[in-house]
Write a structure and sequence with these properties.
Helix content is 30%, strand content 16%. The protein has helices at 54-69, 102-112, 118-137, 191-194, 201-217, 227-236, 248-257, 268-272, 275-287, 308-311, and strands at 16-24, 28-35, 41-48, 78-84, 89-95, 140-141, 150-152, 161-163, 170-171, 292-293, 299-300, 327-330, 345-346. It has a seven-stranded mixed sheet with strand order 1-2-3-5-4-12-13, covered by helices on one side. It has a two-stranded antiparallel ribbon with strand order 6-9. Strands 7-8 form a two-stranded antiparallel ribbon. α5 (201-217) runs antiparallel to α7. The relative contact order is 0.15. Mean pLDDT is 76; it is low at 291-368.
């Protein structure tokens, strides 16, 4: 079994071996691991709970609850989660998307001065749209839609993508509810978030527009060297014109998504009825080897839950939320070949509709 690097959370006692380091954040790191028993690879997101406030504890556990509940072929799949004894660390095992994230691919294209073809951009847009429609139908507001949270399933420039990282998502109790906390990566924050106004589903729509613009222009829709300057640009300025190789229909779509007013910005269900968008959604449903989950929780080869996207402007997922299981507190097995014993489940506080935390900091203004 491969050696775990110093300073990394050693998961060898849980039947996992270290493969590579994928990234680090404010609360922990992400490692690529391999399950010894099956040979399957996973992303292991290790979140340090030491020194966190009660609200930050809730946010960490909220991500697990969301990952357990959300089942969709265009959402990064949850595999398992456990607490590492003595380290105050929550470990979440997730599907490994071999192609990395869209942000990395965009930076590669920028360096090569090579834009994506419009059909490829819109194919990805259709996939992200369906993923967002699904989570919204489950009353989940993502709040951190960005190119670095959209992952390529395969290491190819035409791979399908999946939406991931629900760490700062929240569940809205009703479709008219509005969140109040200022969250999200600054480049993708909506004008209403920048103004500290209440916001709702339309904030994710704005972020989707930022992602679409970035795929076309190979740069973010709004950029500045300071947070104050960025906020001013988001609230007051218009995004730059797209390169001439993109159609008027695509330019119009981005302008609608990046409308400053929430009333002028379309809902996701409205987008499904736009012929230009619906064409790409229909092509996705007809050609992509998607699977979905039926109500019994098993994989199926049908497109149930996706087919109504273009047929009805009031798309609702047919998949009910799964019951949330408690996260086990796992201790390492002596032989290091299984997931360890689970003497007692670790019970956490219930999901709070008001949770949220500040994520705008100078560290967000990086090249990534």
């Amino acid at each position: 079994m491969s050696q775990w690097p110093p300073g990394k959370v050693n998961l060898s006692g849980f039947g996992l071996e270290y493969v590579a380091h994928l990234g680090s954040g404010h609360y922990g790191c992400v490692q690529l691991v391999r399950e010894v028993k099956t040979g399957e690879r996973f992303c292991a997101k290790s979140i340090s709970l030491a020194g966190l406030s009660e609200k930050e504890h809730e946010n960490a556990h909220q991500e697990v609850c969301l990952l357990q509940a959300l089942r969709h072929p265009l959402i990064v799949a949850y595999h398992n989660s456990f607490l590492v004894d003595g380290l105050h660390t929550l470990v979440i095992l997730m599907e490994h998307c071999m192609g990395g994230d869209l942000r990395g691919l965009i930076l590669q294209r920028l360096q090569a001065s090579e834009h994506f073809f419009e059909d490829q951009v819109m194919a990805w847009f259709a996939q992200i749209l369906l993923a967002l429609q699904y989570i919204h139908s489950e009353r989940v507001l993502h709040r951190d839609v960005k190119t670095s949270n959209i992952f390529l399933v395969e290491a190819t420039p035409t791979s399908m993508v999946k939406l991931g990282d629900f760490g700062i998502s929240r569940v809205l109790e009703g479709t008219s509810d509005a969140a109040m906390s200022t969250v999200g990566t600054p480049y993708y924050m909506s004008p209403e978030v920048c103004r500290n106004d209440p916001y709702n589903w339309k904030s994710d729509v704005w972020a989707l527009g930022c992602v679409l613009y970035e795929l076309c222009a190979l740069k973010r829709a709004f950029e500045s060297s300071s947070l104050a300057g960025l906020i001013y640009r988001i609230v007051n300025d218009k995004h730059d014109k797209l390169p001439d190789l993109y159609s008027e229909s695509l330019c119009d779509l981005i302008s609608q998504l990046l409308a400053k007013s929430t009333q002028s910005r379309p809902a996701l269900s409205d987008l499904s009825a736009v012929p230009y968008v619906c064409r790409y959604v229909s092509e996705l449903q007809a050609s992509a080897p998607l699977v979905t989950i039926n109500t019994a929780g098993n994989y199926s080869g049908s497109y149930s839950g996706l087919e109504s996207c273009c047929d009805s402007p009031t798309y609702q997922s047919q998949l009910p939320l799964a019951p949330l299981a408690p996260i086990p507190s796992a201790s390492a097995s002596p032989n290091g070949s299984d997931w360890g014993s689970v003497p007692q489940p670790a019970m956490f506080g219930e999901t709070s509709a008001e949770r949220g935390f500040q994520t705008c900091s100078s560290s967000d203004f990086s090249n990534r």
